[in-house]
Structures are given as C-alpha cells and as structure tokens.
Amino acid sequence: MEQQNQAVSLRDFLTVLFKHKQTILIIFFAVIVTVTIGSFLLPPTYEAKSSLLVKFGREYIYRSEVGERGSSDVGPLLPLNQEEVINSEIQILTSRDLIEKVIQTIKVENIYPDLVKNPSKVIAPMEAAILQFEKKLSVDGVKKSSVIQVSFQHKDPHIAAKAVNLLVDFLKEKHLQVYSDPKSSFLEQQLAAYEQKLKESQNQLEVFKQKYRVFSLEEQRTLLLRQRTDLDTSFKTSQNQIRELQNKLSSLRNQMRAVSKDVPLYTETERFKIIDDAKAQLLGLQLKEQELLQKYNEDTPLVVNVRKEIKIVQDFVKKQEEDLKGKVRTGQNIVFQDIEKEMIKTQAELSSQEAGRDTLQGQIAQLDKEIQTLDLRENELQNLKRELAANEKNYKTYLEKVEEALISDNLNRQKMANISVIQAAAVPVKPIKPKKALNIALGIILGAVSGLGLAFFSEYTSEGLSNPEGVERHLGLPVLGTVPYKEEE
Questions:
Q1: Is the pLDDT reported for residue 162 higher than 80?
Q2: pLDDT score, position 130
Q3: Where in the chain is the domain with CATH 3.30.1890?
Q4: Which residues of 351-381 are buried (b: 16+ CB within 10 A; e: fewer)?
Q5: Contacts of 437 (CB under 8 A, 6+ apart)
Q6: CA torsion sign, 159 to 164 to 169 to 175?
Q7: Which residue intervals of 75-179 are DSSP H helices?
Q8: What is the DSSP code (8-state) at residue 466?
Q9: Which residues, 6+ apart, have CB-to-CB distance to 353 below 8 Å?
Q10: Tally of CB atoms within 10 A around 408
Q11: Among candidates 356, 354, 361, which has minimal Cα distance to 246?
C-alpha cells in the first residue's frame, strides 16, 4: 500500500511537471535572464578599508586638578578599560561632525552628484549626503584587540579610498580636540599672578628684616634673655646690699647718738683712709669695666651700670678731698669720728647701690619691652614667612601644571595622537557589488523554485482532473478506462 502511495505521489509530481513544463521553463529562464542582465547592468560598488590601532596614551591618563591632595602618592590613573576606549573612538569616528567635514572636503557634487542634480524638496543636499554616507559607512572594533576597522562603500573606488583616509585623518584631529586640556591660558594667568605675589612676599620679608634688623630671632631672643638674667641677678644682689647698707647705716646712727662728739684730746683726721678705700673701689670698678668691654658692647646694660657706679665713686672722692682742704686736725672724739667716717662710707655705698639698682631696674624694664616687641615682631615675621611659603607652594604647583599643559599643547600641535594607522585605505580594484556568479547561481535556484511553485499553484487551483487517481479520490467512483488526449494537427 505504501509503495502504491509513493508511486502515485511520484506520478502526480511528474504529471504536474510534464503538464506545466512550458510554464516552468519560461519562468526559469525569465528569472535567470533577468538576474543576469541586472547583475551586468547594475553599477559596481567598491569598498575601501582601513585598520586603526588605539593605544593607551596620555589622553586616557587622569591627572589631578590643581589643589587636589594625594595625587602625588597614588600617581596617574587609567579610568577607562580597553572596551570603553574602543567604543569612545568608534563614536568619534561615526560622529556627524567628522562625516560632514569629509563631505565638505570632497564636495557633495563629487561624492553624490545625483543629490545636486536632482535635489530633494524636503531635505538639503548636505543632509541627504550625510545620511547616505552614514548608511555606507561601517566602523567595527575587532574583538579582544585594540584594532578598529573602518570601511566605506561607493561607486567610485578613488572616492571610497579618499573618504576613508580623510575620515581617519579627521579622527586624529578630533581626538586631540576632545582629549585636549583647554586650561593652559588660565594656568599661565594664575602662574603670573602667583609669581607676582611671591615677589611681593619676598620683598616684604626683606624690608621687614632690614627695618627691624631681624636676622636670627632665636639668637636675638637668647641674647636678650641672657642679658636680662644677668641684670636680674645684679638687681637682686644690689637689693640685698642696699638692705644691708640701710641696716648698717641705721645701726651707725644709733651708735652716734650714744657717743659724745667732743673729747679733750685732739687727733689727726682719718678721712684720708676713706678716700683711699674709695679710690681702691674706683680702681676695682674700672677694672670690671674693662673686663665687661671685652665681652659686651658699650651700650650693654651691664657696662652702662658699671660706668654709673664709677661716676658715683668719683664724685664721692672729689667731695671728700674738697672737705679735707683746711682740715688737718679735729677736736672730735675718735670713736665718734670712726662712726662718722663709717656712716659717710656707708652712705656713699648706699647711694651708689641705689643708683645702680635704679639703673638696673630701668634696664630690665627696657629689656622686657624689647623682648615683648621681639615677640610681636616674631608673630609678624612668622606671618610673612607663612605667606611666602604659601605663595611659593602655589607658584610651584602652577608651574608644574603649566609645564604639563605646554607639553600637551606641543604634542597636540604636532598631532601626536595615540592612534596609529595599521593599514591605510587603498583604491579597491574589484567591486564588492554586484557578485555576478553568485547572483546567477541564486537566479538559477530562484527560477527553478519560482517555476515549480507556479506550476503546482496552477495545478492545485485549477478545477480539472489530470489523472484517474484524482478522479477516483474526488468522485469516489472507480475508473473503468482512460482515453489519451491528442491534439489535432
């Protein structure tokens, strides 16, 4: 039964094939001829290709802004990965600006003359040219690589190659524009401003030092404190001596009240001894003055104090010598004379010590004032130094940034982008369209399918019966005989 069904099906197929052979052959050859003629009549389309290598360079390195902290520790960063970089360059390649620039360079009438001869009423020739260029442009990144392939199709092979090469050249320029840093002029202005501030700070500091003779505050402060310590020690010593002399003078006055002034005996005065002692004290003070002059200047408070003591002793000696003129003998009591002599000596020493104390006190007050003034000047000096350091730091920072910007600008002017052309677009020799052999092969297949399809469609849509089996299937009656059809001649 199955063999019978297969035989019937094959016979039906052959019946349809032979019945509509003429139609099938006409459709078959018509399609082949049409495809062949179309393949030879269609204008050829050429494709120019170029390959680019995108390298990781200075454009993709992040550099810290002015004033950012920590950048010197971590160094420059690469914020983009390979895929992002490739996609970014592809977007630049396919941007409208680059395409429009290529078309303007080649000119619309050269690349798409039909758009100029028969302009559209809806869209401008340039806009239409950009749309057509975008359709024929292909930009793809090669997987797992840093290579970009650029291809463009056009009827003229020379224009196709020229368009691709221009697009690559404009990509380099656009790449530098996109990644260039337009802050060089701003940085130069800031650098000039901070350079001026730095000079002003230096001048202010130098004027301050010359005005107040400040060269080493620590040494000056140490010297002033040492002098104050010496003066304070001398002041305290003088205070103690004054108290001792005051006590001694009070005791001598009490003794004088208890001793009679006159005695019947006369004796020669002993004021010469007082003068000799005063001269000995004067000599000691002069020696002390010479010793101090070897260590300090003449304006030093210690030297000034010693000289005042010398002056007091000199005045005392002079006064005693004048009093002794005309007085050779006395009728006073010897004990009273001794007490009087000691009182005079003590009074002289007390006056000298009080004068020295007052001088020391004034000198200490003057040193305290100088130390306080020095502290105030130190604050002012520190402010000037801090301002100078801040201006110097800002100047160095902007100087480094300006140098980086100048290097980047020089590289940009020389068009040193990190994009290399692996293979420039050459003028294609063979067109990619139409592919005549492939079209003819496809035409043969399409013609055969079209002919058979039309034959079977006509057979199944017709109302007639072409074989006995069909009659039996449709009518349900057995066929008793068949008469072959023969066309009359």
A1: yes
A2: 92
A3: 47-179
A4: ebbbbbbebbeebbeebeeebeebeebeeeb
A5: none
A6: positive
A7: 82-93, 96-106, 108-111, 113-117, 125-136, 157-179
A8: -
A9: 238, 241, 242, 245
A10: 20
A11: 354
**Amino acid letter for position 254:** N
- State the pLDDT confidence band at 484, using cuts at 50, 70 and 90: low
27 sits in which H/E element: helix 21-41
How far is residue 462 CA from its own chain's centroid?
A: 86
Beta-strand (E) ranges in 142-296? 147-154, 262-268
More confident site: 70 or 28: 28
Q: Which two tokens stand for residue 390?
A: 């801040």
> pLDDT tens-digit profile of 194-226?
888 888 888 887 887 777 666 666 777 778 788
User: In Å, how far are 126, 327, 367, 485 from 166, measured between CA atoms?
Assistant: 17, 129, 84, 73
Q: Identify which of 203, 201, 281 has the alpha carbon closest to the alpha carbon of residue 241.
A: 281
pLDDT at 123 over 60: yes
Specify whether the CB–CB gap between 93 and 73 falls below 8 A.
no
Q: Could you tell me which CATH class the domain 47-179 is placed in?
A: alpha beta
Our separate counts of H helices and E strands in the chain read 16, 6
Chain length of the chain: 489
pLDDT digits (tens, 9 = 90+) for 64-110: 555 554 444 444 444 557 788 888 888 888 989 999 999 999 998 98
pLDDT digits (tens, 9 = 90+) for 378-389: 777 778 888 888
Q: Among 9-18, 32-41, 233-242, 273-282, which stretch is predicted with the lowest mean pLDDT? A: 9-18
Rounded alpha-carbon distances, angstroms, from residue 226 to 114, 221, 230, 371, 424? 102, 8, 6, 11, 85
CA-based nearest residue to 309, from 294, 317, 271: 317
Residue whose C-alpha is closest to residue 289's, from 314, 264, 309: 309
pTM over 0.85, yes/no? no
